[in-house]
Amino acid sequence: MKAKFFTCTNGFYIRSTICCIVLIISIFHSFCSTAQQLNPPIQNYSSIAYDAASQNWDISIDETGMIYVANNRGLLIFNGQTWKLFSLNSGAIIRSVYAYKGKIFTGSYREFGYWERNDMGGYSYHSLNPLFKDIALGDEEFWGIMAYNDSIYFRSFGALYKYDGDKIIKISNGVFTGMKVFQNKLWVAKGRDGIFFLNHADKLQFFEPSSKLTGNTIADLEVHNDQLIAGTREQIFYLDKKNDEFNLMPGNLNDAIEKSELNKILSLDHENLIIGTLKNGFLKWNRNNEGIQVFNRSNGLQNNTVLALDVFKGQLWLGLDNGIDRMDIDSPIKFYTNTTGELGAVYDLIKESNKIYLASNTGVYFLDESGLRLIEGGEGHSWNLAKIGDKVISNSNSSTFEILNNKLKILDNSTGSFHTTLSPKNQILVGTYTGIGVVTDSSFYKIDNIGFPVKKMVFENENVLWAAHPYEGIYRVQFSEKLNKAVRVQDVPSLDSLKHFNSQIYSINNQIAVYSNQNWYRYNVFKDRLEVFEELRDLKGFKLLEEHDSKYWFINTQSDDLFFTNLKDQEFSLPAWRLENRLVKGYEQMTAVSDSIYYICLKDGFARVDLAALMKEQHQLFIAEPFVAGFQDANKTYSLMEKPNIPHKHASLVTLDLGLPFSDSRNIAYRLVGNDTVSGIVENGELIFQNLDYGDYSLEIYPFGTNGKDFKTFEFTVLPPWYLSFWMKGIYMLLFISGVGLIFLYNRRRLKKHQLIIEQKFEKEHKERIVRLERERLMDEIDMKRKELANTTMMAAKKNEVLMEIQGELNKDKAKINEYRLKHIMNKINGAVKSKDEWQVFETNFNEIHEDFFKDVLDAYPNLTSKDLKLCSYLRMNLTSKEIAPLMGISVRGVEVHRYRLRKKMDLDKTENLTNFLIKKF
Over the stretch 871-922, which tens digit does the pLDDT of each residue have? Predict the structure, then answer.
């Protein structure tokens, strides 16, 4: 179904004899086309957005979709993500640009050359001025460039030139205003002199049929539908092959451009011609129905002066006197935008045969060929429009009314309302702020026992209705037979712990469906409760917008992307940017007007979506290949011709400039595989990584939405820190080996030292053992000698004791014995008792046992006599007085007296034991 008021057509030819009618019709067409037509999506790039001068003189697009623009400040390049400006050293204005086989040729004031991508991802300029040699350049600017037979032809308003790759030659002088390849020949417009073509000798040859155009300045040439088109400032001519002459374009096209001043012509396809003007934007002319659409500032362009045109994959690019615009000419989505702000946000619409009713936050409007008008009395916030039979009912913030012949009929003004529906008994029900009302032919009444606001109503059967509260939940309402009273109002519990908040209710395949808390449920009439809607389980977070003929449109409540499915074999996504992110958040509304045409409400108008064209588009998508346009770390920019190796200290900030030439995918997705593995979406063409660990990395980039199947890979390495570099690892290895060697030597020396210590210890222990054994032997000998001495002494004592007993016995019987003989025996006995030989033997043996005893005693007590020393020696042997007496040949009493005297000489205390003293001290 086509809306008649979207494309202005006329089926008759305007004759030159009725100029006033021509003027009226052309004005009417211009107004109609700019004010009421549905426009394809228009993207505006302001001079602030691309950060260059406002004027853009020429546009060229290469086979990949890269955009090149001749700007007042230099060459502008758009890689689909970011704009980059490259200026000439002279700072001259670039007037023309042409992309050809990897080179971008540009012309400016007395300067011609080409740009090529350099190793760093930027563009370097190569001037061809040295090739002019003997050609004298005046004050020329090069305004047009074109490739023909592998050579580059460029023109100025003073001459036509040719560059064959080696040299530049001047073909002809003259004011050249246009160039085009037609029928395998290069055709040029030479100002007011007509049209020429280049012959085989590279000479210009006048095209005789163009003599009809002489005297008129030809602004541009184009080839359209295998016809050569020539445009002057006021008219367009086409070459009639039958008559071999130029004729005016038929229909009203010339009338439309008469006061707009033609500047550029572009053949969009075999049906449509684009005419860029200096005063009124551009015209789109359809040769089949001779319909004209005008696009200017009033319907989306930034400026009415079109300086350049080019097209790529259905995308029309315009270089303007102020900015750059892009229009998706073939888009299955068209927009109506109210630029005045009068309409506001649209909440609902109804499409009639020749008009559209719009409910917005400022009132209820109708749109037809006469324009947008507010329905009288329809001011105020309107939520909903409903077409019930032949009635159009509006639910507004203050009342409920019916629209009749673009006028209002109040149905109820006691309160505002949200929604209107038709019951199975053909009764009109209105969900109001305070309950549910019923509209009859003559009255409006409220249903009893319902006192809460009702935002949406869906009938389960004739007597049961589901009502959605705007905030607090969902209710299942059972009515009386006459539908004037609610018999039962049941609060429907949720399946989770969350309460139904701002929930949505629908009827899907004759089932009650509930979208609540981002999940889908359906009512099981047999179990009398909600259960998970299995068919929609995967659509968590997707709210239903429209269901028509088993075709469903959902919206992702997080991203605002639309999703279409027939729940069988068809599905696709419509990203939010396709609707210019203009949906009314939280109040999204879509209306089906046919099997293929849907209308979507927007913040400042509405969009018309052609489902059939969208589905066809899915099979004709053009997806460009992303690429790396620049790579730098925190310190420097790297060449893209080799694998970058980044010093670790500069890896704190790694920036990649990515490009995705303009295509049906607008964003780049990435995966970084390496020590750190991350993925995401690139914003504004700049990808930044921070504090990457050292190691090898592989960056995979691919157009978002393609699931990463065909990705491009860019590899780079973050070098280890200096302390983990190759040379440092070598040093560490040497240090390790040296350390091992030192440890080995140290352990070897320590082992030797330990071995020496053990040997010394062993030797010492051996010597000590020998000494100990020797000491033990000596001690044994001493003990033996002590024992021998003691035995000898005791034997001597016994002997002396016996001798003294004998002497005593003799003294008893001295009367019986000869005195002489007795004296002789006594002398012998005394000699035996006091024998010096025995003392000397004793003294020698005693000294062997108690070395230096006598010396030490004499040193301590030099006044001791030999007799004192003898007593001391006996006491040192711990002999008793009784044992000492025989040895000294005196009585025990004599020994005691001698001991007493010895104590005196030694000056010992009375408490001191003499024997103990001698044993301890000597």
Answer: 888 888 888 888 888 777 788 888 898 888 888 888 888 888 888 888 888 7
Structure tokens at 757: 């210590």
The CATH number that domain 627-724 falls under is 2.60.40.10
CB 420 within 8 A of CB 387: no
Q: How far apart are the first and last CA of the chain?
A: 143
- Distance between CA atoms of 303 and 715, rounded to whole angstroms? 44
**Residue 56 exposure: Cα atoms within 13 Å on the Cβ side:** 30
857 Cβ contact list (under 8 Å, min separation 6): 864, 869, 872, 918, 922
DSSP H helices, 702-833, are 726-812, 819-833
Tokens 């009342």 belong to residue: 399
DSSP strand E in 333-425: where? 333-337, 346-351, 356-360, 363-368, 371-379, 382-388, 391-396, 400-404, 407-412, 417-422
Q: Could you report the per-residue pLDDT of 435-469, keeping only the tens digit for each?
A: 999 999 888 999 999 999 999 999 999 999 999 99
Q: Which amino acid is at 541?
A: G
What is the Cα–Cα distance from 307 to 57, expressed in whole angstroms?
5
The whole-angstrom separation of Cα 679 and Cα 467 is 44
The structural domains of the chain, with segments of one domain joined by +, span 627-724, 727-834, 850-922
Distance of CA 129 to the CA centre of its chain: 46
CA distance linking residue 554 with residue 573, whole number of Å = 9
Q: Tell me the C-alpha distance between 402 and 397, whole Å.
A: 14
DSSP letter assigned to residue 426: S
CA–centroid distance for 888 within its chain: 119
In whole angstroms, give the CA distance from residue 606 to residue 599.
Answer: 7
Pairing verdict, β 83-86 and 315-320:
unpaired
Q: 850-922: which CATH number, 2.40.40.10, 1.10.10.10, 1.20.1250.20, 3.30.1330.10?
A: 1.10.10.10
Q: Among candidates 478, 359, 357, 462, which has minimal Cα distance to 419?
A: 359
Question: How are beta strands 123-127 and 111-117 bridged, if at all?
Answer: antiparallel
**DSSP SS3 for 300:** coil
CA distance 467 to 434: 12
Q: What is the CA radius of gyration of the chain?
A: 61
Same fold, 627-724 and 850-922: no
Residues 335/580, Cβ–Cβ less than 8 Å: yes
pTM value is: 0.75
Q: Strand 474-479 and strand 417-422: pairing?
A: unpaired
* Three-state secondary-structure class, residue 492: coil
The two three-digit tokens of residue 63, written as one number:
């086979």
